[in-house]
Amino acid sequence: MEEINIGTILSIGFAIAVIITIVKTARIVPQRSNFVIERLGKYSRTLDSGFHILIPFIDKVSYVHTLKEEVIDVERQACVTKDNIQVGINGVLYIQVIDAYKASYGINDYRYAASQLAQTTMRSVIGQTDLDKTFEERAAINEEVVRALDEAASPWGIKVLRYEISDIELPASIKDALEQQMRAERERRAAIAKSEGERQALINVSEGNRQEVINLSEAEKQKQINEAEGRAQEIELIASATAEGLRKIAMAINEPGGKEAVNLRVAEQYVKEFGNLAKETNTLILPAELSNIGGAVAGLTEVLKHSK
Predict the structure, then answer these.
(1) What's the rounded Cα separation, in Å, for the pair 136 and 142?
(2) Is 231 left (phi over 0), alpha (psi -120 to 50) or beta?
(3) What are phi and psi of 65, to 5 degrees?
(4) Cα–Cα 20 to 30 A to 251, which of 119, 176, 228, 268?
(5) d(CA 289, CA 37)
(6) 18, 47 in Cβ contact below 8 A?
(7) Minimal CA–CA distance to 181: which of 240, 132, 243, 215?
(8) What is the spatial distance between Cα 106 and Cα 158, in angstroms, rounded to a whole number?
(9) CA distance 59 to 40
(10) Which residues make Cβ contacts (< 8 Å) with residue 194, sequence separation at least 6?
(11) Which residues lie below 8 Å from residue 69, measured CB to CB, with a gap of 6+?
(12) Is 167 helix (H, G, I), strand (E, B) or coil?
């Protein structure tokens, strides 16, 4: 019975030893990871992703590193700007291990070191920048921090990819001053926009009035031109009609009995006009030849003969 118990115990112990040996011998490295192997306390090699066999109790996985991009929250820190304004700044740091050997033996804790270096670098950069430019040139500040961090972290086997300022906290007095400044700036822009609108409105009205005056003058000019052309055509038509009438009268005079008809017509008009003249006034000055109407008619007839 005792022999069975001892044999069972030895079998169990051997099985446990085999399991421990397999666990320490076979290692599977995940994708995008590196295992740093030490042999008897000294660096041996770096295992990439895949299946690997180690020497039991001699090889040891001392460090495990991920090659993925890591995000580190940089705690709030107090920074003083170039114009002596204290601000609180939070940041986010993005790093990546590119050399597992340096990340293991170059520094004790590269994450903590990168975070502390980001804080000190940020204080240095903010100290060279005015408060207004801290907001305006945030991208340039981030680039400056990344450049300084990447240069300092190179011996640690890590790559600083980027740094982002997540929040800038200002003192209450500075917030009030900035709010007043922004309010004044908004009011100034509103006043400028209003004045520009009124100016444009006045310009539009004046342009409209100008165009209206031009249109009215053009219309008046065209009206006068049309009236002048109408009067010219009227005069031309009257002249043509008068000339035509005179030609017909001349032809009628030359026909048989024409002269006698003219004499009779002239005598009638002569008498009629003197009669109208006598109606219009009580005083009448008569020519000496009035008694000889026939002589007057004969004189007019002679004029017509010469006109022919």
Answers:
(1) 12
(2) alpha
(3) -125, 140
(4) 268
(5) 159
(6) no
(7) 132
(8) 10
(9) 7
(10) none
(11) 94, 95, 96, 161
(12) strand
Q: How large is the angle between the packed helices 258-280 and 293-307, nearest 10 degrees?
A: 130
In contact, 54 and 89? CB cutoff 8 Å: no
pTM for the predicted model, two decimal places: 0.53
- Which residues does 99 contact at the CB level (< 8 Å), separation at least 6? 157, 158
- CB contact set of 43 (below 8 Å; sequence gap of 6+): 36, 37, 101, 104, 105
Which token pair is 263? 């004499």
Which residue is it, tokens 């069975």? 4
Q: What are phi and psi of 57, to 5 degrees?
A: 65, 0
Q: Which of 61, 66, 67, 59 is nearest to 36 (CA)?
A: 61
Angle at 148 between CA 146 and CA 150, to 5 degrees: 65
